[in-house]
Amino acid sequence: MKKRINKLTLLAIGALLLLTTALPLTANAAQEKPIAKVQATIKLDGKDIKTDSVREIAGRMYLPVAQLSMMFGAQVNWNQDNEEATITTVYGDRILLGNGVPVVYFNGARYIMDAAPFTSDGRMYIPLRDGAEMLHAKVSWNDEEQIVSLESVPLSVATEQFGLTEIVKQAGVSQANLLKRNGLNPEDGVEAGAKLRVVMPSILSHEAKPFTEAEWLLLAKITQVEVGDESYESQLAVANVILNRVKDSRFPDTVRDVVYSGKQFPPAHNGLLDKSVPKANALRAAKDALNGKNNVGDAVYFFNPRVTKGKFWSSLTVIDTIGSHRYAK
Questions:
Q1: Do residues 300 and 212 lie in contact, with contact meaning Cβ atoms separated by under 8 Å?
Q2: Residue 112 forms part of a structural domain
Q3: Distances in whole angstroms, Cα of residue 132 to Cα of each of 148, 191, 208
Q4: Does residue 207 fall inside a structural domain?
Q5: What is the pLDDT of residues 275-300, one digit of tens each?
Q6: Which CATH number goes with the domain that contains 268?
Q7: Which band of pLDDT confidence, cut at 50, 70 and 90, is reported for residue 5?
Q8: CB contact set of 209 (below 8 Å; sequence gap of 6+)
């Protein structure tokens, strides 16, 4: 395996250009903090990786998804319509990342990263530590010399003399976490010859709050009927207004109750919502909002200033204007 990784390392820089041509060409509009180019040395298993692609936001380092993945022999597929990257690692883990979406799907489960991936200069960037850990590697940083060291970690192989107890001790993790990481139950046991993943990505400690398919579809339907003729950004904004209300003590605490209560959403009361069939953009916007992507901060109202006027609406603090609507609190 090590020979394969080293070979891919040598090919990574050249192939990176081919892999990233399909990626979006502009930075994520929701990225509020400045993106800085960092002159840092990347070492993979002790060997220098030549790159000028290290970026920093608020003290956190990022690398392009394609480049980091190729360093560890992983495959990357890009979905242009949804702005999503799917990574399949050499050990069979599956990682799904969305542009500006802090929730990552890791082997089908949802976890929250400390910072969201973003796109810039034709590439999607991922927080370096989160990405490396999910690719089964360790990360260390030498601040004085500005060196990032990445260490690929092989699977641990159980033997008659080196079983689960010894593997757990060597990896420095709990038995329960090790078994969960490998999709095993305590009663299954670990037989000689079993190959176990031993790197525990830090995201595994931050499971995302679940949502139901019914919540997703209702959010997409109301988004479609309210601003379905406008951009994805407008639809994401409306979806977030609803979710912000769910979190705000002044409003009901479920998506359904928010949509069907009060006068903010007339389509919920005049039959239009029942007839709404969400299109791809609305489904994506609703899913991204449920996964934490937010382009309107804590706005809990939206209105079209050409149609909706009055003392109440003029008293609100407008956070942003997207399409034909203002988003306010």
A1: no
A2: yes
A3: 11, 28, 20
A4: no
A5: 999 999 999 999 999 999 999 999 99
A6: 1.10.10.2520
A7: very low
A8: none
Contacts of 291 (CB under 8 A, 6+ apart): 98, 101, 102, 103, 110, 208
- Does residue 55 sit within a domain? yes
Q: What are phi and psi of 254, to 5 degrees?
A: -135, 155
- Contact by Cβ (8 Å): 242, 248: no
Shared-domain flag, residues 191 and 243:
no
Parent domain of 165: 156-198
Q: Which residues have C-beta within 8 Å of that of residue 57, sequence separation ≥ 6?
A: 31, 33, 34, 35, 36, 115, 118
171 and 133 belong to one structural domain: no
Alpha helices in the chain (DSSP H): 2-19, 65-71, 128-134, 164-171, 175-181, 213-227, 232-247, 255-260, 267-270, 272-275, 280-290, 311-314
Above 80 in pLDDT, residue 26? no
Q: Alpha carbon of 44 to those of 156, 163, 204: distances in Å? A: 20, 29, 24
What are the structure tokens assigned to 77, written together?
């597929």
Inter-residue contact 296 to 320 (CB < 8 Å)? yes
Question: In this structure, are 180 and 297 located in the same domain?
Answer: no
